[in-house]
Amino acid sequence: MKRLFARAVTVALILVLISSVVVLAAPRSAATPKSLSTNYTLVNMGKDNAVVNVQYYKDDGTTWQASPDSTSFTIPGNFGQRIVAQYFDTTMSPGRGAAVIQSSQPLGAVVQILARNQTATSGAYSGFVSGSSRLFVPLVSKNRATASGTVNSQIVIQNIEQTGDIMVDIQFVAQSGYSDYTKSGIIIKQGSSYYWDATEESGLPNGWTGTAVINVRDGKKAVAVSNRFAGANGLLTFSAFPQELAYTEWAVPLFASRLANGLSVTVSIQNVSGSTIGVGEIRMDCKSSISTPASFSISNSEQVTDGAAYYFNPVQDLNIPGNWSGACRVISPKNVVVIAQMRRPNITEGVAAYEAFRTDSRDTKVVIPLMSKRQPNGFSTVATIQNLDPLNEARVKLTYTPSPTYPGSQTPIVLRRTIPAGGNLIQNLRFSEVSEIPDGWYGTLVVEPDDGQPGRPIVGFVQLTNYQDPPIGDKLMAHDAFTLP
């Protein structure tokens, strides 16, 4: 079997009849000796069948041959899906590159990065609506010792301009105790990507940690993703934020603090406002229907300069209530961007991350391209849906539609649930919590207002896990779900 290297993927949520989704590849990182492969899942957000054509390109811009099954196919309407796995494509040669996906219907996409036939390493993420001339990465480290092992960052930046090269500068903004650094004049050819790896960056000392601000000159646009390698096997992946998404309030569907199973979620908040945010001005309000206390609030104990970040880290901050799980809202007087990192230090090597959500969304429907319950190989998913309405509960209908390749019943399974005001709903397919879904089931999940009920704004993300919970390796991934009006 041909080995393909890790692919960092940008995904455009198509809003017109004909547009493109871009998928780009990252090489083997100096931060890991592993060969990483990818697959991507496309979900049809339209009503009619999607006629899809894919063109693959190597990073030098030349055509990258792929099998017919990977380049031309149809996806059924109303949230039908298609999984395209590069590691099963015997036509593709090993390497790195990009894919442009054209479709007759709007698509969403999610990528998984895997170390196949090795000790498990995995990451996943959804992508971008569009590119930007300024992008923010809330967490960057070089040879940094953490509770999850030594961590190193990789940032992949792609030129999405239709013609011509772009020139990029990366500003690294240090956490206290280190110095800022700027890498200037990076030229990225049309359609290709630049791969920055912390372990190869002489401009940063070992132990450095902070953030990155990516600036594209002349108003041109790019997209970027971050791969953060932790210890021997951990990998968490998240998308860089375009400046157009900067906002003052963000929803965190799942915050966990020192649970009995070891799970903690660290919230990273990058100040992108252009000026300093003072002590106590960033607040995170959290509420839970299952933990004590039912609610709490915390705020930043240090000022946050422009471009820098502040971290609510329950692994280190024992003032945050322990054995607590719920949903939170980050509130700042100035624009910030936010990610959430999931880990179980000293228990497993599994790490994952997802991007928080702006609270001004009015979308009332959440689409998750892939849900799975207790597959024979242990693969299972957990979906978390947050109600953004702080005053009213959301009564929702959940439609589980089986994949066309699922060997069991093809009849959708419809459930009805209530999400507390500002709270969350968790659909855990790792065990027996959702008894209506049989073991071995896989397909898509759509969450929308229940029949006759007012629509409340909702958002969500999904964890891709292994319920067998092996003690070695990282089989934990997470990515944002898609939302629709």
List keywords for this structure.
single chain, 485 residues, mainly beta, Hypothetical Protein Tm1070, Chain: A, eight-stranded antiparallel β-sheet, five-stranded antiparallel β-sheet, 1 helix, disordered N terminus
Describe the protein:
This protein is mainly β. It has four domains: 19-125, Sandwich (Hypothetical Protein Tm1070, Chain: A); 134-244, TM1070-like (Hypothetical Protein Tm1070, Chain: A), CATH 2.60.290; 246-358, TM1070-like (Hypothetical Protein Tm1070, Chain: A, Sandwich); 365-484, Sandwich (Hypothetical Protein Tm1070, Chain: A). 1% of the residues lie in helices and 50% in strands. The protein contains one helix and 35 strands. Strands 19, 20, 21, 22, 23, 24, 25 and 26 form an eight-stranded antiparallel sheet that branches. The protein starts with 18 loop residues before the first strand and ends with a strand. The model is unreliable at 1-28 (pLDDT under 50).
Task: Tell me briefly what this model is.
The protein has 485 residues and is mainly β. 1% of the residues lie in helices and 50% in strands.
CA-atom Rg in angstroms = 21 Å
Anisotropy-based shape: globular
Find the count of extended strands (DSSP E, 2+ residues). Answer: 35
What is the CATH class of the largest domain?
A: Mainly Beta
Q: Low-confidence segments, ≥5 residues, pLDDT <50?
A: 1-28
Mean pLDDT, as a whole number?
Answer: 89
Oligomer: single chain
SSE blueprint and pairings:
Layout (H helix, E strand, L loop, with lengths): L18 E6 L12 E8 L5 E9 L9 H4 E4 L5 E5 L11 E7 L3 E8 L7 E5 L7 E8 L2 E3 L2 E11 L6 E9 L6 E8 L4 E5 L11 E8 L5 E9 L3 E6 L1 E2 L4 E11 L6 E8 L11 E5 L7 E5 L9 E4 L11 E20 L7 E5 L1 E2 L6 E8 L6 E9 L6 E9 L10 E7 L4 E5 L13 E8 L8 E9 L10 E4 L1 E3 L1
Antiparallel strand pairs: 1-6, 2-5, 2-7, 3-4, 3-6, 7-8, 9-15, 9-18, 10-11, 11-14, 11-16, 12-13, 12-15, 16-17, 19-24, 19-26, 20-23, 20-24, 21-22, 21-24, 24-25, 27-32, 27-35, 28-31, 28-33, 29-30, 29-32, 33-34
